[in-house]
Amino acid sequence: MKKAFVFPGQGAQKVGMVKDLYDAYPVVKQLFEEADDALGFSLTKLCFEGPDEELMKTYNTQPAILTASTACCRVLAQEGLTPDIAAGHSLGEYSALVAAGALTFADAVRTVRLRGQFMQEAVPLGEGGMAAILGLAEDKIKDICAQISAQGGTVQAVNFNCPGQIVIAGSTKAVEEAAAAMKEAGAKRAILLHVSAPFHSTLMEPAAKRLAEVLDDITISDAKIPVVANVNGQIETSAADIKANLVKQAASPVLWIDCTKTMQAFGAETFVEVGPGKTLCGFNRKIDRKIHSENVEDIPSLQKTLEFFQEVR
Q1: Low-confidence ranges of the chain (pLDDT < 70)
Q2: Is position 200 annotated as part of the catalytic site?
Q3: Is 90 a catalytic residue?
Q4: Catalytic residue among 90, 95, 201, 252, which?
């Protein structure tokens, strides 16, 4: 049975995440020490003690989730479970690339810290927003975004998460206008999200340019297993493609539905969400009910996942 490891992005963070794994597995303690050394401050303390408002800042959230997800992945490896293919949602793509050996953990954690900073600085606070649109056809969402943008605003579909859920992003006023128009057009819900920037929209292009300079200064290797890229939903393994796609990803939509279908076409039957939360498990159930999903974020979920794979061997 082929296994896909999928890694969560922003929104999965919570104070205390993976603390029981930290207490139980020396490999997790070593990883957090590596993160603290790489960043020059105690990410460990922030993750386990908060405060929540500091953890929620994107330049803290991104290295925190990457570290928590990589910790879960290393525990799974120690228990004998490794992926055949991997992908991550937005920030989670960096976790997938660490799992695939394309990025070192230290380089990745420093890079995503800067990635968060660059994204925050690309658009002043309050001038960009995002909204989740539920129950409206993709074509209709794109049409409304195009209409609002033609009137001088900036708004686009940026996260194609699962059937019936697409996230839009752009300038605050344009996002609000588009959300209202989509509700009138028949969307079941149009939920304005509490985020600090319009992630994955074209407004993030300044962040992408700055990120490219950072990626120029680190070593990116060919992936040891296939990794599916957010920007095109296709398998990538070459270092050159990985680098190019990471730059594009900052200001391009996340094609999660395509990513999931590519992993299925590869032969993945079981998807393990590696890191805090069960968001991707939920997306995948809506993409295809035949997908079997597990998640690993703490001792109980780890034990459940290990038991599942023992039964199917």
Answers
A1: none
A2: yes
A3: yes
A4: 90
